[in-house]
Design goal:
homodimer, about 210 residues, mainly alpha, about 80% helix, about 0% strand, DNA-binding
DNA sequence: ATTGACGGCTAATTCAAATTAGCTTATAAT
DNA sequence: ATTATAAGCTAATTTGAATTAGCCGTCAAT
């Protein structure tokens, strides 16, 4: 198997739990199953490993974003979920997304790693906000806008609606990230939140 | 001035920006204006400094919590704000609270430090969730419950309402923590969120 | 005035982590 | 068959951070 790649995997796992400064190259090497000096056949420094992880993260993210733009809006909007847009469907979609981001190996570890490094560098701070705040809100705002235009939902500020839809989901995810044992509880809250959100914006509003 | 106390201040400032593992005792000493070995006249190790900060944080937090329980609910609920509970009043209160937590020196630094250490230790994870998720939600849920009973708001699940009220506020605060330049933008979003929340739960609901 | 503790300093010490040097083996291309 | 390269290893080396040792001045209490 590809040692160079495995180094990144192991390093990411460690960085995401302890943070860059608390991880030693010896630990990375041990996880890979080689000795520390051998790491330098593949990367020229510990920092270099970190940078490679960041590059990988950015690449995956851009890939996913491109996919969403190509397929996302059109397909999602034409899908049966949105044709009926029942409360149950929204819950199913929200829960699915939540569980994916919570459990997907890369999503989860990237998120934790960025969480731990977000204050150490302006570039990382910007990346964090983009990936876990601005982009999700932009995307969901677009979705809600569409649902409003289709008459499925009522509301006049899709941005704020997106904020109100997304924030609890994100917050619940951070709780699970640090206290995995609370996942069931968080899933229940998530469902209640989505149902309530859906009910609120279905009928009324000025 | 009290050196022992100043060490904690400087260390907290550093830990909250770089994380424990990336701070050197020499940096702490430099910030205090003494040499590194002199630190050991006051604390027996770097870890000991960290623990002292944690103790201080817990103490302040418990103090504040006690204050709130003594005065909080009664006084708040009898206050003019809640007598009228106009949308503007809610915005004013929400914004005030937001700015306090965002700018208060200790609140801000404790929050950032815990953010960076939350995965390193189960105890810290629990502390984080308690202070920035469970307790705020409990408190606000109680407030909302009262407002509902007084007929000021409509709704049947104060817990979920609290989640929907609190999550955007918290999320906006984390954005400001890592990108202070976005404070104005976040404050605008905060205001819109509170106004919308207030309007939603004022009249309707099933 | 003496004494002792408090808090500072410089100079060691210790220790561990990152990185480099240089040797070895396997394998794949010439 | 030879050779070059890739990728591993052990044994240094370097570095630098945490901590300890031991000295000194101040000041408050005896």
């Amino acid at each position: 198997m590809d040692t160079k790649k495995k180094i990144l995997d192991v390093a990411l796992a460690l960085f995401s739990e302890k943070g860059y400064g608390n991880v030693y190259v010896g630990q990375i090497a041990e996880g890979v199953g080689i000795k520390a000096p051998s790491l330098y056949k593949h990367y020229k420094s510990k920092q270099d490993i970190f940078n490679a992880i960041l590059d990988e993260m950015r690449e995956r993210y851009n890939q996913k974003a491109a996919d969403l733009n190509m397929n996302g809006n059109d397909i999602l909007m034409d899908s049966e979920v949105y044709k009926n847009a029942s409360e149950d469907d929204l819950v199913k979609m929200g829960t699915g997304l939540f569980l994916f981001f919570l459990h997907d190996e890369y999503e989860c570890k990237f998120r934790k790693m960025l969480t731990l490094e977000q204050f150490s560098d302006k570039e990382l701070a910007d990346l964090f906000s983009k990936q876990y705040f601005d982009d999700p809100l932009k995307y969901q705002s677009g979705m809600l806008q569409l649902l409003i235009m289709q008459g499925k939902l009522k509301g006049d500020d899709a941005d704020i609606m997106a904020l109100q839809f997304f924030s609890p989901i994100y917050l619940l995810m951070t709780v699970c990230d640090r206290q995995p044992r609370r996942e069931k509880e968080c899933l229940q809250k998530l469902e209640k939140h989505i149902r309530q959100f859906s009910r609120i914006y279905k009928g009324e509003d000025k």
